[in-house]
Every structure is written in structure tokens, then in C-alpha cells.
């Protein structure tokens, strides 16, 4: 009866607790000291800047070219898929600048969750953190299933589902059981539980070999390709500008990984120097490689003939007649996918660990193992979740769901940087900064929706585009940029323009996704809010009360002694 009475009391107090907790923020100092101490043991600072660059590059390369390029080139953008990568790369670079500044100011393992929580409060932080977790789990499952395709291709097997078990009675898209993908995820989970430094060394070795495969593919592809394939049979951009832009939203999936580097902030020896280099530098390197790889693929074969599964292996077999090259590419892609999974699973565990520190999910997920210095509970839990999805779910079911979650979180981080820089650190009124962010979002949305109108409403695009630039220019001229003291950390230059451009591009790319993506995203967002109202807000409220009581007892004991 007592337990039931407590539950009913909590339900009755939900509105009060929401008012008390939803907008509460922590300072960066609290996030990196008091909150971090809730994990018990601390993560070990054993990583250098080159480890971070390796993690960023390795985390992006496997997931990008080998999973999305063939599909987007064939069905969405045509040979102009390289332009899709350029657009997505610019957006990712701008977002990486935002991440880099925040990671220096708030060197905690929570990444976007921590940045949003110290800026906009607990509810927005949890919403962003839960979305990034969903994106990680789904993308890792998708990448693990593509590992099976390329491993089979390495062995000379071209049938996509040859190593999967078909089960009757399960809905299409979920009926091909992928046990090799599950095995890979479980093995990497065990590696990540053992040590972060050793995992980073393994990633570095794999990434070096993977880069050699990239050089081989680019040179061999351009050598055997023809510029004629880039413009035939229907021109460079057969699906038009809209196809290129739609493709950019989908290939944004390829840039998942650089934000994993920001979650290493508690394990880097010199965060202020290493984090900006590792995060932004890895995006630049990978963007160049993506463009060259996509050009090589489309130069070798007309886009209409590109294989849906393992396209790079298939193109060397069919076009060049290099059976051995197809196996080499399959092996290289498999290595890249292993590195990508390793980094992403490293990042997702740290996100969940810090969310658990905030008591928004069960506290046992926050524990750091004292001997390995890794968030072992979070790593095992998310490894099992990822393996379960990879067992059943086909790639196409999750691709666009991944992109919308990623774009939303990057949009929120860009907004948070502007607000944090000018309202929290600066001397500007919060309302003025929030009004600017609202107007910028609305004008970006107006531009994007104008493009969606049949026949393209060019006057609307011109009007809203000019409005976005004008609003940003007015804010730049009117805002006070004085800080309480001269900043010593790395900061994004030319603010607010890079962050404003990131807001604009992320809104634009989100509107290119299909309606089904928004429906699935809306359902997931509803689940997040319900979980926060039913569990998260009560857990954090109780934790706050307990800490206040413990602090009073501690002070009383100090007075007595």
C-alpha cells in the first residue's frame, strides 16, 4: 500500500515537478565535476589528439560510401551524388564547429545531451540525447547488416541475402535474419568493455588499412572509368536539383561519427587542443574522400546499372572484370564497417552513461568500471539493443529515420551555441536571442517549403532566403559581443554566421525527407516525452531531494565535529 501511495503521490505532483525540472540547467563546472562523480570511478584520460582524428575518420568512412552511395546514385541523385556529399559535408562541417566549441567549454562525455542540458534545460537535453541514441542504435544496426553483404562479396558471393536466414510469417523487411551482423556487434561490445585506449589503437590500425583501400578504389575507379558515364544516359543530374538535395539529406547518414569524437572529452589528455582538431579535421578529410569515391563509382558504370547491394565490389567484377579486385574491395569495406561500428558503439555508450548520470534513465547505466575505466553497463545494454535490431531489420527501413534524428540534434546544437554564446556568456537578453532563433528557423522553413511547392516557388525561395540573411545580419550588428572575461578556449570564428548557416541547412535538409520519416519520428518523439513525464522527471526530482538531504546531513555533521 505504501508503494502504491507513493506512486499516486508522484502522479499528482507531476505538473509541479515538470515546472521544477524541465527547464533546470547545470553549469559546465557542475557537469564536469558533481555530475561526473555519480559514475563512481572516472574514465581514464589515455587518448591523444591523433587518436581522436583516427576515431573521427574511422567512425565516418565505413558507414558512408559503402552503405549509402550506391543507393543514392541509382535512385535519388544520379551521377551528381558527389554534389549531394558536398552539400551534406558543408552542413556537417558547420555543425562540427558548433560541437567543437561546446566540447571545449563542456568537456563531458555526454556530447549533444550535455550541451543542450547546460543551455536549454533538462527536457530539451533529454529529447536531443534520446534522439541521438536512437540514431546511433539504428545506424549501427544498418551498418552491421551491410557488413554481411561485403563479407559475402569478399568470398565471391553476390546474392545479397545468401548469408541471411529467411523466415516465413514475418513482415517483409524484417524476415531476413542476419546472424553475422549480430556476431560482429557482440564481439565489438566485448572489446569496448575491456579498454578505450586499446579500442582506439585497434581502430587506428583498421583505419590506416582502410585508407589504403580507399586510395586503391579511387585510383582504380578513375583509371577504369569514363567521363561519359557521368553524363549518360540522362545527364549529370537526371533527377534534377531536387534529387541532389534529397540525396544530400540521405547521405548525411554518412557523417554520423564525428560527433562520437566529442563524447571522448573525458578521456582526452588535452581537450582544448585535441577536440577542435579531431572533430572538424576528420569531417574535412572524410568529405574529400566521399566525393572522390562517389565520382569513381559513377565513372565506372552508368548510374542505372549500379548494384543495390555492395556496389563497389560489383562494379569491379562487372566493369573491369577484376574478380580479385571485387574481393579486395569487399575486404576493405568490411574493415571500414568494423571501424565505423567500433567508434559509433564507443560514442553511444557514453551518451547513455551521461544521461544516466542525470538520473533520466536508471542509475546503474551510469556506472564506470573501476579497473577498465569504461561505462560497461551502458556498453552491454546498447550492444544487445543494436544486435536485436540488426538481426531483423533491413537497411531501407531505418535510413531516413536515422537522417531526421541526426539533423534535428545538429539543428538543436547550433541553436544552443548561439544562445549560450550571446545570452548565457554575453550580456544580451535571453528573449532577444530566442526571438532571433525563432525568426531564423521560420525563414529557413519558409525557404525549404517554397522549394517543395510544385514547379518550385522561386519568389518564395528568394524572399525567405533574403529574410534569413537579413535577420542574421541585423542580429550580428545589434548583438552585444562583450564577454565577462576574455575567453581562453577555442571559439567558432565569424559568429553568428556559421551557426546560423548550420540552422538553415539542417532545416532545409530535414524538409527533403519523406512524410513517412516524420511520422516515424513523431511516434518516437511521443515515446520520449511520455518516458520523461512518467519516469525521467520523477527520477531527477527524487535525486535532487536526496542530494539536498544528504548535503544537510553532511553540513550538520561538520558543525557537530
Automatic annotation (TrEMBL):
<feature type="transmembrane region" description="Helical">
    <location>
        <begin position="202"/>
        <end position="224"/>
    </location>
</feature>
<dbReference type="InterPro" id="IPR002293">
    <property type="entry name" value="AA/rel_permease1"/>
</dbReference>
<feature type="domain" description="Cationic amino acid transporter C-terminal">
    <location>
        <begin position="490"/>
        <end position="539"/>
    </location>
</feature>
<feature type="transmembrane region" description="Helical">
    <location>
        <begin position="177"/>
        <end position="195"/>
    </location>
</feature>
<feature type="transmembrane region" description="Helical">
    <location>
        <begin position="397"/>
        <end position="419"/>
    </location>
</feature>
<feature type="transmembrane region" description="Helical">
    <location>
        <begin position="114"/>
        <end position="134"/>
    </location>
</feature>
<dbReference type="GO" id="GO:0015171">
    <property type="term" value="F:amino acid transmembrane transporter activity"/>
</dbReference>
<keyword id="KW-0472">Membrane</keyword>
<feature type="transmembrane region" description="Helical">
    <location>
        <begin position="431"/>
        <end position="449"/>
    </location>
</feature>
<keyword id="KW-0812">Transmembrane</keyword>
<feature type="transmembrane region" description="Helical">
    <location>
        <begin position="490"/>
        <end position="509"/>
    </location>
</feature>
<comment type="similarity">
    <text>Belongs to the amino acid-polyamine-organocation (APC) superfamily. Cationic amino acid transporter (CAT) (TC 2.A.3.3) family.</text>
</comment>
<feature type="transmembrane region" description="Helical">
    <location>
        <begin position="521"/>
        <end position="538"/>
    </location>
</feature>
<feature type="transmembrane region" description="Helical">
    <location>
        <begin position="49"/>
        <end position="68"/>
    </location>
</feature>
<dbReference type="InterPro" id="IPR029485">
    <property type="entry name" value="CAT_C"/>
</dbReference>
<dbReference type="Pfam" id="PF13906">
    <property type="entry name" value="AA_permease_C"/>
</dbReference>
<feature type="transmembrane region" description="Helical">
    <location>
        <begin position="324"/>
        <end position="347"/>
    </location>
</feature>
<protein>
    <recommendedName>
        <fullName>Cationic amino acid transporter C-terminal domain-containing protein</fullName>
    </recommendedName>
</protein>
<feature type="transmembrane region" description="Helical">
    <location>
        <begin position="80"/>
        <end position="102"/>
    </location>
</feature>
<feature type="transmembrane region" description="Helical">
    <location>
        <begin position="279"/>
        <end position="304"/>
    </location>
</feature>
<feature type="transmembrane region" description="Helical">
    <location>
        <begin position="236"/>
        <end position="258"/>
    </location>
</feature>
<dbReference type="Pfam" id="PF13520">
    <property type="entry name" value="AA_permease_2"/>
</dbReference>
<feature type="transmembrane region" description="Helical">
    <location>
        <begin position="461"/>
        <end position="478"/>
    </location>
</feature>
<dbReference type="GO" id="GO:0005886">
    <property type="term" value="C:plasma membrane"/>
</dbReference>
<keyword id="KW-1133">Transmembrane helix</keyword>
Amino acid at each position: 500500500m505504501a508503494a502504491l501511495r507513493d506512486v499516486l503521490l508522484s502522479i499528482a505532483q507531476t505538473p509541479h515537478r515538470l515546472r521544477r525540472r524541465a527547464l533546470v540547467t547545470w553549469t559546465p563546472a557542475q557537469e564536469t565535476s558533481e555530475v561526473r562523480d555519480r559514475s563512481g570511478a572516472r574514465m581514464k584520460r589515455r587518448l591523444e589528439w591523433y587518436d581522436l582524428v583516427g576515431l573521427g575518420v574511422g567512425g565516418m568512412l565505413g558507414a558512408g560510401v559503402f552503405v549509402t552511395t550506391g543507393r543514392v546514385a541509382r535512385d535519388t541523385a544520379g551521377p551528381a551524388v558527389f554534389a549531394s556529399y558536398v552539400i551534406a559535408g558543408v552542413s556537417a562541417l558547420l555543425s562540427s564547429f558548433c560541437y567543437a566549441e561546446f566540447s571545449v567549454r563542456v568537456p563531458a562525455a555526454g556530447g549533444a545531451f550535455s550541451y543542450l542540458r547546460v543551455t536549454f534545460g533538462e527536457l530539451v537535453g533529454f529529447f536531443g540525447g534520446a534522439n541521438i541514441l536512437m540514431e546511433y542504435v539504428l545506424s549501427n544496426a544498418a551498418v552491421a547488416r551491410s557488413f554481411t553483404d561485403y563479407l559475402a562479396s569478399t568470398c565471391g558471393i553476390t546474392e545479397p541475402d545468401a548469408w541471411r536466414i529467411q523466415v516465413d510469417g514475418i513482415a517483409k523487411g524484417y524476415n531476413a535474419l542476419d546472424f553475422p551482423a549480430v556476431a560482429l556487434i557482440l564481439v565489438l561490445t566485448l572489446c569496448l568493455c575491456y579498454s578505450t585506449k586499446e579500442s582506439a589503437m585497434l581502430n587506428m590500425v583498421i583505419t590506416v588499412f582502410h585508407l589504403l583501400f580507399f586510395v586503391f578504389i579511387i585510383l582504380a575507379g578513375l583509371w577504369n572509368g569514363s567521363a561519359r558515364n557521368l553524363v549518360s544516359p540522362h545527364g549529370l543530374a537526371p533527377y534534377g536539383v531536387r534529387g541532389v538535395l534529397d540525396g544530400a539529406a540521405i547521405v548525411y547518414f554518412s557523417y554520423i561519427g564525428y560527433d562520437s569524437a566529442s563524447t571522448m572529452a573525458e578521456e582526452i589528455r588535452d581537450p582544448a587542443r585535441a577536440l577542435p582538431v579531431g572533430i572538424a579535421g576528420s569531417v574535412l578529410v572524410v568529405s574529400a574522400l566521399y566525393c572522390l569515391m562517389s565520382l569513381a563509382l559513377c565513372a565506372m558504370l552508368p548510374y542505372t546499372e549500379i548494384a543495390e547491394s555492395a556496389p563497389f565490389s560489383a562494379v569491379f567484377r562487372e566493369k573491369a572484370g577484376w574478380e580479385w579486385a571485387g574481393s579486395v574491395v569487399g575486404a576493405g569495406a568490411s574493415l571500414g564497417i568494423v571501424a565505423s561500428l567500433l567508434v559509433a558503439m564507443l560514442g553511444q555508450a557514453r551518451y547513455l552513461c551521461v544521461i544516466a548520470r542525470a538520473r533520466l534513465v536508471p542509475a546503474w547505466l551510469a556506472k564506470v568500471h573501476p579497473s577498465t575505466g569504461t561505462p560497461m553497463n551502458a556498453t552491454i545494454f546498447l550492444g544487445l539493443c543494436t544486435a536485436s535490431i540488426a538481426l531483423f531489420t533491413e537497411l531501407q527501413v531505418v535510413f531516413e529515420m536515422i537522417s531526421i534524428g541526426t539533423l534535428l540534434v545538429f539543428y538543436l546544437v547550433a541553436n544552443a551555441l548561439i544562445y549560450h554564446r550571446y545570452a548565457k556568456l554575453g550580456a544580451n537578453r535571453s528573449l532577444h536571442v530566442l526571438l532571433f532563433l525563432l525568426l531564423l528557423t521560420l525563414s529557413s522553413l519558409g525557404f525549404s517549403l517554397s522549394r517543395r511547392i510544385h514547379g518550385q516557388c522561386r519568389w518564395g525561395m528568394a524572399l525567405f532566403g533574403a529574410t534569413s540573411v537579413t535577420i542574421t545580419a541585423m542580429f550580428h550588428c545589434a548583438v552585444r559581443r562583450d564577454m565577462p572575461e576574455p575567453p581562453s578556449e577555442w571559439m567558432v570564428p565569424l559568429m553568428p554566421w556559421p551557426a546560423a548557416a548550420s540552422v538553415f541547412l539542417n532545416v532545409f535538409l530535414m524538409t527533403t525527407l519523406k512524410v513517412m520519416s516524420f511520422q516515424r519520428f513523431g511516434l518516437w518523439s511521443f515515446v520520449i516525452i511520455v518516458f520523461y513525464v512518467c519516469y525521467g522527471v520523477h527520477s531527477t526530482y527524487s535525486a535532487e531531494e536526496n542530494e539536498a538531504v544528504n548535503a544537510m546531513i553532511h553540513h550538520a555533521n561538520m558543525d557537530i565535529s
